[in-house]
Amino acid sequence: KQEVTQIPAALSVPEGENLVLNCSFTDSAIYNLQWFRQDPGKGLTSLLLIQSSQREQTSGRLNASLDKSSGRSTLYIAASQPGDSATYLCAVRDRNYGQNFVFGPGTRLSVLP
Amino acid sequence: NAGVTQTPKFRILKIGQSMTLQCTQDMNHNYMYWYRQDPGMGLKLIYYSVGAGITDKGEVPNGYNVSRSTTEDFPLRLELAAPSQTSVYFCASIDSPVREEQFFGPGTRLTVL
Known about the structure:
Chain A is mostly beta strands. Chain A has strands at residues 4-7, 10-14, 19-25, 30-38, 44-51, 56-59, 62-67, 72-77, 86-94, 101-103, 107-112.
């Protein structure tokens, strides 16, 4: 059964730092991997979607990479800002699990001014 | 274009009561999902639908029912509410079965006492 983990569970950095969030999955048979942002009390907002045939995707200050063979994805945030403070979740679409997207528990990021 | 909308935002139920969580999307998406999110956990899939008249169980369907009579609406029904159903419920849809980018509603916070 596919399992998704995210380390660290929480991260606090000063404004301006570049940072990396990690996502690991146990089964490399995936269709895609998606990174989301969740603000307190809100729904999830899609940040980046990487198809299984791709190695990375970029949007503004965000860059997500995918290494299926090692079961890892990283989300790189450049020049962090206080407005980046949120919980970041990753999810994989498992080839062996029908329509189920398997989510990680998230990393809670605080960017301090 | 409102995207995915959910009502109500908050609800308190007594044990044994029933209720329906509403979800509507105006993006003409065929695929829709219901998730629950418990504190510190990833989202878990309850039910999903690949089009009007077609629904299927996800990972945690017990205690819930769904229907899909139109493309726009995908209500989730709780029968005989139990404290274990205290959670935040999210509805989502995807743009196409090829790309699979997920769009989420703002969530319904449900407490069963």
